[in-house]
Design a protein that fits this description.
407 residues; alpha/beta; 6-stranded mixed sheet; 5-stranded mixed sheet; globular
């Protein structure tokens, strides 16, 4: 069956699309990627999504228009990836606006809001759409995240020792796969959100460049600065980073307010980042040292340090390899920091296994949609903490067809 997967992560920078074909047993399917595409969100849309995702007051009418615009972008990415309409089914994550993990101490259940008008998307693509993948797990007491580890286990499998997969999107999240053989081969697949990857970095770059830049290309700006290792050690002692899995987080925890606090710790404020030319530390001649470069160096190293700390303290042996996907994999300085801090683990791009950095999560949601179509219980309680496994997603049939897709 050919399925199209659509993913937009916490960075809210655009949509990744993958057209994949699945066959065979659900737990270990045969699969291949037929096509992929990525499109950036228009700047106005991205700014609105980031603002709403950090609690900016927004009217109902504005939210409605935002949902329509976002859905149209999802459809555009789908057509770019699959112009001939080969997909029989679409799996679409939508855009997370807010994620609230459960609070066991207070009994408060978790909730998560992925913005999307799924029936409209099904109409625009003339294909049934599986969406709302997190709600069933949340209703069963789970975190609703991360959802990609089951797909990693099904699509990639294990090696001779523990294998880790890392997504460096807005948030850094890990999957740990047990060995393919030996006494630990029956151990549970593990996974959790480590903490910030690009959320704080992108916000800081936008602030320091007065909105002229949205990310630190290859980490060049950060590479000019000095890392405050003592401050990173202090940050790693914060409650979230010491919390044991299952755990999940997002921009609501690691957004503008969190950046303000960390910049205050660094003694770096936006005004100090503005160079004499008025454009910030990064001008026509390239990044220059200064308060902003020091802040970005420390924030980038912090993103690597939260991953390294989790790998070192986890309830598992040190993984043999760490396969990296997501936009942060294109940040050379961040990758250097990962390699330096994850001692004893080979840090490699996921591309080496034939899955592009921007393809992994879109491929996962294509698989999750296929699993929904088959009635397969895709969630992993060992990862999310839910009381039981469940079938994930809701189906928006193609309007007027009455069909759940061709099998």
């Amino acid at each position: 069956m050919r399925v199209l997967g659509l993913m937009s992560g916490t960075s809210a920078d655009g949509v990744d699309a993958v057209l994949a074909e699945f066959s065979g047993p659900s737990r270990r399917p045969r699969w291949r990627i037929l096509a992929s595409a990525s499109i950036p969100y228009p700047q106005d849309l991205r700014r609105s999504l980031v603002a709403v995702g950090q609690g900016q007051p927004t009217s109902s009418g504005e939210l409605l228009e935002l949902a329509e615009s976002l859905t149209e972008q999802q459809a555009l990415a789908a057509r770019r990836c699959d112009p001939q309409g080969q997909a029989e089914l679409v799996g679409c994550h939508g855009q997370t606006l807010w994620h609230r993990p459960p609070e066991p101490a207070t009994g408060r259940r978790g909730a998560s809001w992925q913005l999307l008008q799924a029936p409209l998307l099904a109409h625009l693509l003339q294909r049934p759409v599986v969406h709302d993948f997190r709600s069933a797990d949340l209703a069963l007491g789970g975190q609703g995240a991360p959802l990609v580890p089951p797909a990693d286990a099904a699509l990639l499998g294990g090696i001779g020792g523990w294998r880790a997969l890392l997504n460096l999107g807005g948030i850094a999240n890990l999957t740990l796969l047990p060995p393919a053989s030996g006494p630990e081969r029956r151990a549970s697949v593990l996974g959790w959100d480590c903490g910030p990857a690009n959320t704080l970095l992108d916000l800081a770059v936008s602030r320091f460049s007065a909105g002229q830049l949205s990310f630190d290309a290859d980490g060049a700006w950060a590479r000019c600065g000095q890392i405050d290792e003592a401050l990173i050690a202090r940050w790693l002692a914060e409650p979230y980073f010491r919390q044991s899995p299952p755990k999940s987080t997002g921009r609501e925890s690691f957004g503008s307010e969190d950046l303000d606090r960390r910049l205050a710790d660094l003694g770096a404020v936006a005004g100090r980042a503005i160079a004499a030319g008025g454009a910030g530390d990064s001008g026509p001649g390239g990044p220059a040292p200064g308060a902003a470069a020091d802040a970005l160096a420390t924030l980038t190293a912090f993103s690597a340090a939260v991953v390294a700390a989790d790998l070192q303290r986890g309830p598992h042996p040190q993984p043999l390899e760490l396969l990296v996907a997501g936009g942060g994999g294109r940040n050379g300085f961040l990758m250097e920091q990962l390699r330096r801090r994850c001692r004893g683990t080979a840090v490699l791009p996921l591309d080496d296994l034939g899955i592009g950095a921007s393809e992994r999560e879109a491929l996962a949601f294509a698989l999750l949609a296929w699993w929904h179509h088959r009635g397969h219980q895709a969630s992993m309680p060992a990862v999310t903490g839910a009381r039981s496994a469940s079938r994930l997603g809701l189906l928006a049939p193609c309007p007027g067809s009455g069909s759940a897709g061709r099998g």
